[in-house]
Amino acid sequence: MTARQQLLIGLLTGALAWCLGYLIAPPMTGRTALGYQALPEGMAVAASTGEQSMVDNGRRLYADACLSCHQPLGQGLSTVFPPLRGTDWVTGSPERLVLAVLHGITGPIQVNGTTFNSFMPGFSQQLNDEELAAVLNYIRNSWGNQGSPLDSTLVADVRQRSATRQAPWRSQAELESFLDDLFPETTEPGTP
Ligand code: HEC
């Protein structure tokens, strides 16, 4: 084999390796498409205050805690996991939303006219008030949703008022009657 042939083979092998890498790379780095892993760690820490970091935190927490069931675009999954896109649970009453995610819910609930009868665990142990506010603000303002801002002090208040609750809500009806007792001053559940 001449030196020239060797060089040619070397170049072709290199090009092939690059192509393969190119083909394989997207699935491996798929989660960076969500944005947050692309941030160098120092940057996320440096920007730990302010609105943008709240959005980044929300996105990251969503990916960690909610995405597996509610899916990347909040579209839900078949009849088991309800959507978060365009539901009045998400953009409506902040208190009802916090209660649902804080303690979890099972049994029949209405989401966009469909009855789901499945199970979601509570996140009261896993997420603190700021984290819960960040992830809820994220879902309230993603995928076309437009919800009013939800403050971590509201999460703290709802958490404290429902502190004796241990188990997930057994149905939408149970959650809503608890909500009525807890906040008699608030209007119909579902109104923003
Ligand atoms: C293990 C799967 C699972 C995970 C993880 C999960 N959910 Fe749910 N979620 C459900 C199911 C199932 C329901 C419906 C429960 C029922 O049928 O009673 C639900 C209902 C909801 C609802 C009310 C209905 C709707 O679709 O609007 C909201 C809001 C919600 N989840 C938000 C969240 C958020 C925020 C997170 C992450 C912090 C999360 N969920 C994590 C499975 C899950």
Automatic annotation (TrEMBL):
Residue ranges of the TM segments: 7-25
A single MF term (Gene Ontology): heme binding
Pfam families according to UniProt: Cytochrom_C
UniProt keyword 4Fe-4S present: no
Record Gene3D superfamilies: Cytochrome c-like domain
Superkingdom of the organism of origin: Bacteria
PROSITE patterns reported for this sequence: CYTC
Alphabetic keyword roster: Heme, Iron, Membrane, Metal-binding, Transmembrane, Transmembrane helix
Residue ranges occupied by any Cytochrome c domain in the UniProt entry: 53-143
Protein name, UniProt field: Cytochrome C oxidase Cbb3
Protein source organism: Corticimicrobacter populi
